[in-house]
Amino acid sequence: MELIKYVRDLNTMEELFPAIHRYALENRVPVIDSDALNVVKQYIQIKGAKNILEIGTAIGYSALHFASAADGVHVTTIEKDEASHNLAKDNINAAGFSNKITAILADAKEVDLKDGRFDFLFIDASKGNNQLFFDKYKEYLTDDALIIVDNIFVRGLITDDNVENRNKRKLRDKVRNFNQAMKDSEYSTSFLNVGDGLLVIY
Fold first, then answer.
1. Cβ neighbours of residue 194 closer than 8 Å, sequence gap 6 or more
2. How far apart (Å, rounded) are the C-alpha atoms in residues 25 and 19?
3. pLDDT on residue 1
4. Distance between CA 49 and CA 38 in Å, rounded?
5. Is the sign of the CA dihedral 50, 14, 104, 56 positive or negative?
6. Which residue range is the domain that position 186 belongs to?
7. Which ranges in the chain belong to alpha helices (H)?
8. Which UniProt keywords are listed (predicted)?
């Protein structure tokens, strides 16, 4: 057994929402990898996070997991695709989590959360906008907030120097630039080789 698979299997816990996870796999809905998900949930627990902001709801899979990570957690999650948002709300209601998750239908590039103050930010939307989302939503965070960005490896694209497709090359360069900017910033950062890559920013 290769080492990466060994560690991935150790980091993957029993699925709490199997029907939603199965739907995502069968319909190619992009959701966080299981090993990375459990690492994020542990960070939520270690941080003692209570007010989580998620950029990119999809069908509500990660929001449900985050809300279940510890008692007293509330998740606010933003999704611009109406069909995904509606399915997420159905999933949240069916799981009995409507009082723990607020799902917002909007373009995260344009949302004004007014007085929202969050101690945990999870960015998992269009990868080329990581920098924009970071810059916009850090203003809504507490001073000791934790930020995690998913898919910083872009399914292997990040290290591919021979990308012929112009759009993919542009995406790769944007994510590369963001990763480097965070490394060079004043913030404490960790780049984790779990799932499709997690960036943890404090």
1. 7, 8, 11, 33, 35, 36, 39
2. 10
3. 64
4. 15
5. positive
6. 3-201
7. 3-11, 18-26, 34-47, 61-67, 82-94, 130-137, 166-183
8. Methyltransferase, S-adenosyl-L-methionine, Transferase
List the Cα angle 36/37/43 in 5-degree steps: 90
Output the pTM of the full model: 0.94
Residue 108 corresponds to which tokens in the numbers above? 């995260």
Asked whether the predicted pLDDT for residue 181 surpasses 90, the reply is yes
Which amino acid, residue 108? A
Q: Are 124 and 150 in contact (CB under 8 A)?
A: yes
Six token digits for residue 87:
């399915």
Compute the distance between CA of residue 99 and CA of residue 97 in angstroms, rounded to an integer.
5
What pLDDT does residue 114 have? Answer: 78
Q: Give the residue from 140, 51, 40, 58 showing the smallest Cα distance to 100.
A: 51
The number of distinct structural domains making up the chain is 1
Pairwise CA distance, residues 197 & 11, whole Å: 14
Cβ-based neighbours of 42, under 8 Å, separated by 6 or more: none
Look up residue 3 and give its two tokens. Answer: 């080492």
Q: Tell me, what CATH number does 161's domain have?
A: 3.40.50.150
Residue for token pair 């809905």: 29
Task: Give me the amino acid identity at 140.
Answer: Y
